[in-house]
Amino acid sequence: MLSESAHFSLPHVLESETELDASILLASHLYYKQALQMLRNFLEGIILQFYFCENIDDFRGWKRGTFKVPSLRGKDGLIKWLRDKDLLSSELSQSVSDLYGELNGSIHSAQIRMIHTGVFEGQWAGKIFKYDRFKVWCELFAKCVNVGIQILRLNTNLWLEKRPQDKVYCDTCHNENINEFTIDKTEIHEGYITFICNRCNDVIMKKHISRDGQSARAINLRTPCTTVLKDSLRIAGSILPKILD
Predict the structure, then answer these.
(1) Rounded to whole angstroms, how far apart are CA atoms 91 and 171?
(2) What is the extent of the structural domain holding 44?
(3) Which strands sit side by side in the sheet containing 219-221, from one edge to the other?
(4) N or C: more exposed end of the chain, with fewer CB within 10 A?
């Protein structure tokens, strides 16, 4: 997915992975409530990225820090908006909403989600391994990953339909101003021109560039190049032969 630039917002994709990693780390150290908070963040991130893919102006506002993120649920929430646009099925929308509701207790300090619950009943045993709490976290983690995969697939398909194909375009920062790219004359390959985005330093290879920046489909090479699939390397003229072998 990353190697083919099949993502709308790279920071959201990376952040989603980090949320899951953080949840695993916290659960492994017996911080069950905090581990659930990371799962809630994960859901918010994947839904927000999906919304931005269909609302590029709001995405630009988010990057500037001027966009106020709506709530996830409710009549004006992101889930309802995506469902009304037929981007999310009713079943998947309900699954996300219910899962988000289950995780809310970890944010709003519901007693059952607290690390030190049981004090009032004389059952508090301190910060120790609790099988029941660990089991709950495992089940919610699996549910989050399941819906996350489904939403990410829908998001990827939507972006591949909307993504500019026939001009110089940066998949990292969404720069499409041809005047804000520099030609890398040190990277010359037959039939290709290498561009560097002046905004984020991403590298884009284009075939048969015309003066107005229109061209055939881009091949986006990320650093490190080992993240690029072998097929992409072959199409690009075997720039780095056997680097993935």
Answers:
(1) 31
(2) 10-162
(3) 181-189, 192-197, 203-207, 219-221
(4) C
Angstrom distance (rounded) from CA 8 to CA 14: 12
> Do 94 and 197 fall into the same domain?
no
Least Cα distance to 193 among 201, 202, 204, 180 occurs for 204
In angstroms, the CA 106 to CA 241 distance is: 49
What whole-number distance in Å separates Cα of residue 176 and Cα of residue 213?
9
What are the pLDDT digits (tens) for 45-104? 999 999 999 998 999 899 889 999 999 998 899 999 999 999 999 999 999 999 999 998
Same domain, 96 and 63: yes
How far is the C-alpha of 62 from the C-alpha of 69, rounded, in Å? 8
Give Cα 165 to chain centroid, integer Å: 21
- Taking the model in full, what pTM does it have? 0.72
The first and second tokens of residue 182, run together, are 């520099």
What's the token pair of residue 109?
Answer: 């300090």
In the block, tokens 């010359």 appear at 188
